[in-house]
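Task card 7
Instruction: Convert sequence to structure tokens.
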Amino acid sequence: MMHAKLLCSIVKWLLVGILMAGCAPHRLYRTNPELCTSSNPEQDCQEYFLQEYTPAEIDESYLLGFIEFDDQGQLHWRGQMNSVLDKIGEAAASQDLLMIAFVHGWKHSAAPMDGNIETLRHNLRALSALESELSRREGRAERKVVGVYLGWRGGSITLPVVKELTFWDRKNTAHKVGYGGVIEVLAKLEEIKKIKASIDAPDRMTRLVVIGHSFGGAVVYSALAQIMMNRFATTQGPVGLATTVEGFGDLVVLVNPAFEALRFSTLSDVANERRSYFQAQLPVMAVLTSEADDATKRAFPLGRFF
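Output:
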């Protein structure tokens, strides 16, 4: 009997040790406040939270800033946010910007070489090349492409198979992060856009698009739902059509968002109740879901079932 108890105790602590060894670090990845300028930032700028991509030949340059949050949604380091926003504000003082704020999803983070970071870099390069071509064709000043990567601990365990069981924990964390410091960061990015517009109107060209993927969509929606609800409500006049609806920034995009449709229903009801809009009204939110996305097609329904 004693041997059985001892064996069970050993197995239990071995399992605990294995799980502890497989825990994703809860840490700040980007700690260097200097601006790192490189044609290969993936390798040269891993510790920097301010990076400038400077290609040798094709005009695909961009500025990328990292802002990181803990599991409670608090900024890991307020100085990191302030430095990134100050750099973007400095850039906005001399030219128009195309700002992309991106929140990653499940099993990702702000760690160097993360797949979501690589995808964002690819898209920033493509956007910069497109902007270079359009500006030459239209005979106007080129806008600077700026990316802001909002990092959180999208995966708490790195062990194969076991990491799939972090669904419930990371889903709850995503909403916590959205209710925390993300709101402040996005609001300050929008303020940069509005200040730029007030100075340069009517030729304002600075744009802000906020993108959330997977549980990052839950982060973005949790952060902005109440703000967007309020902006829908304030457009109501005596006949319900006082003005166009002001969205957040220029567009909010949710890509394969991993949260329940019920959370979206109130905003959807408010939008549909208005029924008609002015011809000048632009979309304020785009929700895009791929049928090939396994996380929302299989993992999310399975996780919700349990």
